[in-house]
Amino acid sequence: MGFGILVFGYLINLNTLVYPGFTKILGYLVMLLATTRLAVYNRPLRSAHHLLIPTAVLGGGYLLLEMARLFSLLPKNEEELLFRLIPLALYALELVFFYLLFRGLQALAAETEVRLLEVQAFRNRIFTTVYYVLFLAGQFNYGESSAVFLVRYNIVVLLLGIVIGFLNLKMIYNFYMWICLPEDLSMETGGLSIPGLRRLNAKFDELQEKGARDMAEQRRYRAERKKKRKDKK
Fold it and tell me: What does the pLDDT read at residue 146?
């Protein structure tokens, strides 16, 4: 279902210390692959997938900007301005992406009646949103008098980000263990039956069929609208 790929992509995205431009675009592309598989299940997951496309494009621009700085291809003033604006735009897009992603995962957990994952997705959606808002608030210049406070503030936000990053990684891994594996691997070995897995499989079969029907209906609706426009012309 893509949760294993999502774990890998999120882990890559957490690394912002070593070649952040490269790790960002790589993390986005891996998560884009994961959300391609998850997008059929509900609207928030589809919206998260669609939002990740321009995010990945902007991440590619950030990588090109890092290469331009490496070879001194841009004027200093323009380079500093772009290095300030593009990361801010990326983090703002990430805020919305993770909000939609975790909202979709929460709905998915509710559909499959896995209460623990539903609670974790709701909690992490709130925590992650608060973290990104606090992080973005600390990226602006509030004057020389606030310089010392901002240093301490950003250290606290960094530590908060590490904790929340760990919680998010653990939550996505839990989805991989409890929702992905039952469908992909059946998890039936030697006649062993794990409670709730058949119910989970049935729910996901139903969700997948519903998602496929919705996508087919959307394609039919777009085709009809396109045909009507042509007829008017």
Answer: 77
Domain locations in the chain? 3-232
Residue 17 pLDDT > 80: no
Rounded average pLDDT over 8-18 = 82
Say what the pTM is. 0.76
Query: Rounded to an integer, what distance in angstroms lies between the CA atom of residue 23 and that of residue 40?
Result: 27
- What is the tens place of the pLDDT at every residue in 192-227? 344 444 555 555 556 656 666 766 676 777 778 777
End-to-end, the C-alpha distance of the chain in Å comes to 43
Show the tokens assigned to 73. 């291809």
